[in-house]
């Protein structure tokens, strides 16, 4: 039978400090059989236990390898990088890590991946994950993004597994393939403009949707530049747009002015008239060019909400596209109309003409052939002569962004 000893002297001392303390307490001499000197412990380990500071079995320190070690480290990494990423970039990274955690968890449960702990991952685990993405049919560009995210996370921990993977399994390393996607066809652009004319003047949702799409096509604006714009940024007298919320606005990006093509003038005029009525009724303090009327103050749309507006135009016209395709269309039309590549690059907010040509637009081959033939036949081309790139042009950084 266990005898519990008490030390009344200690209890009396505590009682003198506060009346809430008990008159007797359990001392180190009277412990439960599972703790203290009778507890099991590793050979040679006589250090006090972390539990009640008694000799016995020591509890190991906590680490990141809990139930969700991948997410725990991902959150710690995103917290550490802090303001190095924009808010939208951090959200995108967080979504990517959550999705990767879900896929890796499934692979571990099925025995197709050894560990979910980033600290213990090796090149073999990276191979297993990339092989799964490849078998699943994930596009190579998306696999590049996943590998880059995994590399940043493991490098933050001090784990070189991704670099070892690239050396040992070169054939499985996804490659970023540069290339221009096509702009919108001229017939599709004309169809969208005609469809916008059929929208009723009191149809708020559709007027807003067509205004977003045609403004993107007619000024070559990024999603962010449209979404976070104010009504004062649009000058309908000169038909100019002041892009101030540009890519890299806190670092390398600078605001710019862009002329708006005539295709968007009619729909924007109709939209602004209805916007004035709606804002006055619902949220008078809302200054957003494209306000989310459910909000009372700033009321800017979220990025996904702007995509939903674009989807309305897709459904109405039957033409599939994205807002970046609208941006490419602006650049290609400008080049086809004999605007120089340097001017197009500046209007699109690129730091160099290389970005414009590699990713967005380039002079069409038939126009280049026609221009060459005119020169060889002694005829002067109607538009400006293409000029060779100079170091000054390639190294300028007075405009915003790389894309």
Which properties best describe this structure?
3 domains, DNA polymerase, domain 1, hpI Integrase, Chain A, 2% strand, 16 helices, globular, 403 residues, mainly alpha
Report what the structure shows:
- This protein is an all-alpha fold and 403 residues long.
- The chain folds into three domains: 104 residues, DNA polymerase, domain 1, CATH 1.10.150; 141 residues, Orthogonal Bundle (hpI Integrase, Chain A), CATH 1.10.443; 57 residues, no CATH class.
- It has 16 helices and three strands.
- The protein has a three-stranded antiparallel sheet, with no helix packed on it.
- β1 and β2 form a beta hairpin.
- α8 packs across α12 and α13 packs across α14.
- The longest helix has 23 residues.
- The N and C termini lie far apart (79 Å).
> From the 3D coordinates, which CATH architecture of the largest domain would you assign?
Orthogonal Bundle
CATH class of the largest domain: Mainly Alpha
Helix content: 40-55%
Q: Helix and strand string, N-terminal first? A: HHHHHHHHHEEEHHHHHHH
Structural class based on helices, strands and sheet pairing? mainly alpha
Please state how the strands of the largest beta sheet are arranged side by side: 1-2-3
What do the pLDDT scores average to? 81
How much β-strand is present in the residues? under 5%
From the N-terminal CA to the C-terminal CA, the straight-line distance is: 79 Å
Number of domains: 3
